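Why show two proteins at once? Because comparison is the fastest way to build intuition. When a single record is shown, students tend to memorize it. When two are placed side by side, the eye starts asking what differs. So, the first record is below.
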Amino acid sequence: MEGVAVVVLLVAGIGVVVCALWVIVLRDEYAEAEEFPDSVEHAHLRRVAEARVSALCPGAIRLAEKERAGGASDGEESAPAREFWRRFAAASASVERDPVAALRELRGLPVLLEEALRAAEREAVTAKGMDRREDGR
């Protein structure tokens, strides 16, 4: 009788392990399918979003250089730059998984980038004026 109980428990244990592995494999296949949709539309939208992010990169580099040269502050002048960097990072991060969200984020970024560049330029001019005044004293 004890031998039968051991065999039953052994078969039940093997069954539980097999079921658990089956659930894990199915879950992983489902997660991969959700994570990387293979539709033509998704691939096209991803390429469009990548191109728009790439088009903003030269301006983003100029902005970073101006911020570094001007000693970016936390004042009102830097608000457009902060907003640009926040939205640019969000769009860049979501290009692969959710290109539609990335395109939504990218919608107003060229205008915001120009605004941030103008604000950084004004800040640099102000900083130069302050340096000249301090040198003159």
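Second record. Ask yourself what differs from the first in the token line.
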Amino acid sequence: MSPYERNPPSSSPASAGASRGDLGRPGLRSVSPADLPSRSTAKSGPGSGGGSPSSRDGGNLVGRSLIRVLCNAGSGALEYTHAFVTAYSADHFRGAVAQRLSVGAYELLSNALNFGSVSSDIILELIESENIVGVRVSNEAIQARISMLTEHLLKLRTNAEQTFLEELRRSVTGGIPRPMLGLARVTHEVGLTLDLQVQDRRVSVTAQCRR
């Protein structure tokens, strides 16, 4: 069951102006759009084969930022931020795309809140180009975590189904390191393409699909 199904939006869809105002929650605020310098290190999902990265082949998504919010690692921002993104997506995109973006936003933000550095902001964006839409979450992380994430995305790119089943088993049996089921769900269950960008300690993960 997806986070969208567990937590359907209880309020009317948010407008674009809401992303620029105070969302009324501690640890969450809006900012003006700004580009983050980045370099691509790995990507997974349909259409993520070789060639130069672009919004058409599953590479780095470049487009208009519809939502851009900041929150802090370790905060309780997941549920209400996810509800906001879900409502906004439902108001702007067809149902299937909105639900896929809802799942992507939940899993990417959950990872960032759990594993991101508490000394820097987490940035969530909903981005659209002419044919592609996606959710991007960026945060700072230690090098060991970045290496683990890169390896995980390469495994998803090689065999998303097998990786999903492995992480599902680990989530049931437990163990160390902690299971990384969320990104496997994003790729295998809802079919979003994942792209990883790294600049020093800053990590950006984008989950995207065609409109």
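One difference worth noting in the second protein: Confidence is low (pLDDT under 50) at residues 1-42, 46-58.
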